[in-house]
What we know:
- With 367 residues, the chain is an alpha+beta fold.
- Helix content is 26%, strand content 17%.
- A 5-stranded mixed sheet has the order 2-1-5-3-4, covered by helices on one side. A 3-stranded antiparallel sheet has the order 10-11-12. It has a two-stranded antiparallel ribbon with strand order 6-9.
- The two termini are 44 Å apart.
Amino acid sequence: MAKALELKKNGKSLHHLTLDGEEVPFTPGETLYQVAERHGREVPTLCYDERLEAFGSCRLCVVEVEGWGKPAASCTTLAEEGMVVRTTSERLEMHRRVLLEMVASENRDVDVDPLSGYASQELATLVDRYEARTGRFAGKISGRTREDDPNPFILRDYDNCISCYRCVRVCAEQEGDYAISIRNRGFNTQITVEFDGILKDSSCTFCGQCVHTCPTGALADLKALSKKDLPGETEKTRTICPYCGVGCSVDVVSRDGTMVAVQPAMDGPANHGALCVKGQYAWDFVQHDDRLTTPLVRDESGTLVPATWDEALDRAAEGFRKVAEEHGPQAIYGIASGRAPNEAAYAMQKLMRAGWGINTIDHCARA
């Protein structure tokens, strides 16, 4: 009802169809999958990512439409006035279970570590939901893992690929890189890059989008997997990437207080699941052995030694005063950090402009 009132308020025309015996509203342009999802139906899918154009390749999301001779892929079928739709039935459940049995039969592994990526558990979850671990279709395996790719970020384990093409589509539709493509057909289908090469020689920017849309872990986060043996419960903490001013939302993944990965927030208002290579993989500084944990000042021999905050601030203030006294305020130059919050940037420019009466201040806010 709230959705219907909102649509009327926005001047959009309402239409109705029957969904599992219930009359529900929809707006022109919505697919049956979107209508079903909005009304709380659990329609399975493996090739669907709401950020991408619907593809309809996995056929798990099929529904029955009264008067139609065969099930329809709900992700690519537009809702129409008066449709009578069933999202579940004995026929549909059998169809989905057999499909999952066949998909799982082509993969070396169904179970992969959750650290592989944001969506990496989708196949295993559905296989368990439909009790599809029968092994009755075991046989030829598709895909060929690229163990020869030396990049430190992305595992290309194509023995676990199900040819959903989500990686190809997210690279093209969301990133605009078109670094990933497909060659061959059937059991010989292979996800690849230009000239069947390695990622660093392709158009890949290592944004990690392909990793976090992959539903099987065929593309996985190598840095995260290197931490998989750390003990402790896996926790996620929502925060903001510190690298530039865009404000991308991320989930910091940790075990027992140790950071093990960064995953993009799919509902992040600024990024909608996207990250750059720095936001995705350049988080080692957080717990690096070389990271400073206390202020340092130079002693009489010029060696840096630990100090208190008061000692360090007094030393810095005296240095500024001495430079201004000997060379004038114009000899002072300030550089603000693009990784600092707005309040720190404001305080920095206030120090230079109001404190020293100069405008020689810049920043390093480079995306």
